[in-house]
Amino acid sequence: MTDQLSSGLNRRNLLKLTTVAGVAAGVGMTLKTGALAEDGLSLKGKRIGISATGTDHFFDLQAYNAQIDEVKKLGGEPIAVDAGRNDGKLVSQLQTLIAQKPDAIVQLLGTLSVIDPWLKRARDAGIPVFTIDVGSTNSLNNSTSDNWGIGKDLALQLVSDIGGEGNIVVFNGFYGVTPCAIRYDQLVNVTKYFPKIKIIQPELRDVIPNTVQDAFTQITAILNKYPEKGSIKAVWSAWDIPQLGATQALTAADRTEIKTYGVDGSPEVLQLVADSNSPAAADVAQQPAELGRIAIRNVARHLAGQAIARETYVPALLANKANVAEVTKKLGIG
C-alpha cells in the first residue's frame, strides 16, 4: 500500500478525490444554509445561555458572536459568558447560568471531564442543554463538523504529500477535547497502514495561552535534535494555531521542506497555505459562524416542539496548495 501511494499517479488521484470531496461539501453547505433561512423559527420571550470556553481563537469568536446574533435575530435574549480559557471560571459561569434558569444553555467547546458534570446538573434542573463541538451524553444536540472525515482527509493529505514515509511530529495536548481526540485517532488509524511513517516520541503538548510562541519554541527544539534535512517530513496538529507557530519556526530555521497540517481555517493560516514558499501544506477550514447559527436554530426548533437529531454536521473544506483560493472564496474570507 505504501509503494502504491509513493507513485506520482496515485498521489495525484488521491488529491483529485480530496478536491472533489471538498467541492461536494461546499454544495451541501450552500443547500443547508438556504434551507435554514426560511423555516420561520422564533425565540421570542426566551432567554438563552451561551457559555464559551474562550474567544481568543478565530473559530471560538466566530461561533460565539454568531450565537449571540442569531438569538437576537430570532427575538430572544442571549445571556453570553466567556471563561477566557480558565477552567475554574468556566465551571463558575455554568453554575451561574444554571442558577439563572434560562430556557436553554449552549456550551461552546470545553474539556469534557471539566464541563460534563455541570451540563448534567443543567439537564437535571430541567434546562435543555445544547453543545458545539462537545461530545456529551447530556446534550440534546451537538452542532459540529464531521471530525472523523476531517481527521481522515487531513491524514490522507499528509500521507500523500510525504510519499507514505518519514518521521512526523504531532501535537497532542488536548485529547480530552472531543474533536481533537477524534482527529488524532484518525491520524493514527490512517498512518498505521503506512509502516514507514513514524510519529516522533514523545508527542508534543500544545498549550493555551501563548500557543503560537510555545509551538515555535518546541519545534525549534525538535529541529535541533533532527538537524538533517529529510529527518522530519511533517508537523501535525489538531487545530491550526500550533500549526501557525510551527510554520513560523520552520521558516525561521530555513527548514521549509517540512510540511505543516492543521484544522480550523484561521485566516492567517490559510494565507500561509496560499503562499507557495510557506511550509503550511494544508488546513481544514471549518465554518464556525454557521455552527453557531445552527446551534441556536436547533434550540429554537426544540423549544417549538420539533424533533432534532443527536448531532448536526456542518461541512468543512480541506484547503491545500492547489485549492486554497477556491476554499477561501467559498468561506468569504479570501
Describe the structure.
The chain is an alpha/beta fold and 334 residues long. It is built from twelve helices and twelve strands. It has a six-stranded parallel beta sheet with strand order 2-1-3-4-5-11, with helices on both faces. A six-stranded mixed beta sheet has the order 7-6-8-9-10-12, with helices on both faces. Helix 2 runs antiparallel to helix 6. The longest helix has 29 residues. It is elongated. The protein starts with a helix and ends with a helix. The N terminus is likely disordered.
Features:
single chain, 334 residues, alpha/beta, six-stranded mixed beta sheet, 12 helices, 12 strands, disordered N terminus
Short description, anyone?
With 334 residues, the protein is of the alpha/beta class. It is built from twelve helices and twelve strands.
- Strand content of the residues, in percent? 15-25%
Q: What is the overall silhouette?
A: elongated
Q: Main β-sheet, in a few words?
A: 6 strands, parallel
Low-confidence stretches: 1-38
Number of strands: 12
The SSE order reads: HHEHEHEHEEHEHEHEHEHEHEEH
Summing up helix and strand content along with how strands pair, one would put the structural category as alpha/beta
With strands numbered from the N-terminus, the spatial order across the biggest sheet is 2-1-3-4-5-11
Task: Round the mean pLDDT to the nearest integer and report it.
Answer: 90
- What's the helix count? 12
